[in-house]
Design brief:
Largest sheet: 7 strands, mixed
Number of helices: 7
Shape: elongated
Distance between the termini: 55 Å
Helix content: 40-55%
Radius of gyration: 19 Å
Length: 180
């Protein structure tokens, strides 16, 4: 029995790491946790540009999905879309999500104050989130796998939502989203 346990112990450790990889990744990311939005001038400018675009898209009922990467990388998701390396501006975000443009389907990922990729396919959540559509399921799915902040604008209602750590906060306005 001792010999058998010694031989299997290596395989049990590998199986444990493979099975619990998302949870281990999330726990390690929490160790170096920072505030959601620091108060530097550059990050305030980024926030202003995103909120201006979100407000414009919500008013026009144009669907949008914007992920802001934090500690856990989103490289695998970025590779499903079109690579960009562009400064964040409200005009560019609004243009990306305008219907019938090549990049409007999918989500945008912002990394280090730059639009890194557009038209990305986010992983869908397997949880039941009510009568919400694929855009909201994708937002929750990415927030379950990473610590990214994911902002969603509903195409049907123009409602603004925020997904973080697998939770979806619905019915936000610009002022409340800024506070969060």
């Amino acid at each position: 029995l001792n010999w058998l346990l010694q031989r299997l112990s290596v395989y049990l450790v590998i199986a444990f790491v493979v099975i619990f990889q998302p949870e281990i990744r999330r726990a390690l990311a929490e160790l170096g946790k920072q505030h959601v939005f620091a108060t530097t001038q550059r990050e305030r400018g980024l926030l202003d540009e995103i909120l201006q675009a979100i407000s414009r898209l919500a008013a026009d009922k144009i669907g949008a999905l914007i992920a802001i990467e934090r500690e856990i990388g989103t490289r695998a998701v970025q590779e499903t879309g079109t690579r960009l390396d562009s400064a964040v501006s409200a005009e560019l975000l609004a243009t990306i999500f305008f219907p019938h443009t090549p990049l409007h389907d999918g989500g945008v990922i912002i990394v280090d104050n730059r639009i890194c990729a557009a038209a990305c396919v986010f992983p869908l959540s397997g949880r039941d989130i009510g009568k919400l559509g694929t855009r909201h399921r994708a937002a929750v799915g990415l927030s379950e796998e990473t610590d990214a902040l994911v902002i969603v604008v509903s195409e049907e209602t123009g409602a603004i939502s925020l997904a973080y750590k697998g939770r979806l906060i619905r019915g936000l306005d610009e002022a409340r989203l800024r506070r969060i």
